[in-house]
Amino acid sequence: MYFFNLRWGDVDLNTSSDGLEYLQLNERQTKTRSGANIADVRGVIPKMFATNDNDRCPIRIYKSYASQRPADFCNPDDPFYIAPRTGNQVKTEIPTEKWFIKAKVGQKK
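The structure corresponding to this sequence follows.
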């Protein structure tokens, strides 16, 4: 499934001409979407726009997720979905520590 191969660089935070922030999915070539078949290209680039709902705004959630990732694990080729701190890691949590660790989440999670 494509989303398990999603990389940090596949999602871009942009601002529209009217100042509204949005997330844009930049699809890479995959096994089934090699780019060879012109008919197998999306006609519209997927985007998610900011909302006024503070609890469910995708931009606010994305920014929060980005701020809690390890700083050296935000390169374009790093996995988008990474593992949260669990068990003993949470018990010894230091307020300045990030919520996530440098480990890709498995497909069954």
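The mean pLDDT is 79.
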